[in-house]
Write a structure and sequence with these properties.
Mean pLDDT: 94
Order of helices and strands: EHEHEHEHEHEHHEHEHEHE
Radius of gyration: 18 Å
Number of helices: 10
Shape: globular
CATH class: Alpha Beta
Number of domains: 1
CATH topology: TIM Barrel
Strand content: 15-25%
Largest sheet: 10 strands, mixed
Number of strands: 10
Distance between the termini: 27 Å
Helix content: 25-40%
CATH superfamily: Aldolase class I
Low-confidence stretches: none
Structural class: alpha/beta
CATH architecture: Alpha-Beta Barrel
Length: 304
């Protein structure tokens, strides 16, 4: 069957050639390991069980995971092997299963989750996405996803076209976020008894949405519009994570405005704006987070 899982609707027969996402029909995974660098209520002390899928429906020019996002790096595995990976991460005391960039593999992921749950998988499932998602594809994860971890990158179509080759990004992402909220609604965190029952740490998010926004240099006004949209539409029903970890890599050397880090002044201005809006359910980053050391090593196919 030709693939139209994402908004690109490239209609590729991925058994014959890769889709726009760069991915074949068969699962391709680059890393499956405990990941310590998500929000505190996702990683905790034990780590999030992050499964990094190769390929991506966007083509962000500043992507820090370019090697796997372009579909060039990863190991092909079966649905049964993915099931086993989920169970292995649970055995390693992961606080959740964190599906990183999963949309182009949703049917296979859903099948693997169904099998794993029948074999004792009980920790929460996190869907970690750029938000460039088809609503119908997200509906396949209804009842399987506990926590959504979506980006909201831009409101300005000129920026989304220049930096992600997706002029319709905001319209698509807004509809996707609406569907995510329909599925999981308000945030829930694990109390002592629930944490013990699930085998995770206390105070981990077990249901809800954390909307992530990565600040880009020189684009603070659009960042403010992102915060306006999310807070005006969802208020305290979602958490907002405002990130300053943007790192200019070699792939942006010819894009002058992106070839620097976000300044302390820019980030402080955005945090002040969020506080003045009334945002209280959120996360900010402190210190020097814009370091390449935060990018995982994808070369060894750890855990795959």
């Amino acid at each position: 069957m030709n693939c139209n899982l994402c908004p690109r609707k490239c209609n590729a027969d991925r058994n014959q050639k890769n889709g726009y996402c760069g991915a074949p029909e068969r699962l391709r995974v680059a890393r499956a390991a405990l990941h310590m660098w998500e929000e505190p209520c996702i990683s905790g002390n034990n780590g999030s069980g992050a499964v990094f899928f190769s390929g991506c429906t966007l083509r962000c020019v500043f992507c820090q995971n370019h090697d796997i996002a372009a579909g060039l790096n990863g190991k092909e595995i079966s649905t049964e092997r993915l099931r086993d990976i989920f169970l292995e991460l649970q055995d390693k005391k992961a606080n959740n299963i964190n599906l990183v960039t999963p949309s182009h593999y949703v049917p296979r992921i859903a099948a693997a989750l169904d099998m794993a749950k029948q074999q004792g998988l009980k920790i929460p499932i996190v869907y970690n996405t750029s938000s460039y998602e088809n609503v119908d594809t997200l509906k396949m994860m209804d009842g399987l996803t506990d926590v959504y971890l979506p980006d909201m990158k831009y409101t300005d179509s000129r920026l989304s076209m220049r930096y992600s080759y997706a002029r319709d990004y905001f319209d698509v992402a807004a509809k996707a976020l609406e569907e995510m909220y329909r599925q999981v609604e308000n945030p829930v965190f694990a109390d002592k008894d629930t944490a013990k029952q699930l085998g995770i740490e206390e105070d981990m998010m077990i249901k809800g949405i954390i909307v992530r926004h990565l600040c880009l240099p020189g684009q603070i006004e659009d960042s403010k519009r992102v915060l306006d949209y999310v807070y005006e539409n969802y208020g305290d029903a979602v958490y907002i994570s405002i990130m300053n970890q943007y790192t200019p890599l070699d792939n942006v050397k010819d894009i002058p405005e992106l070839n620097r880090r976000v300044t302390d002044e820019e980030y402080s201005e955005l945090i002040d704006y969020a506080q003045n809006l009334g945002i209280v359910n959120g996360f900010i980053q402190e210190g020097t987070t814009a370091l390449e050391s935060f990018i995982p090593d994808f070369g060894s196919y750890e855990g795959v």
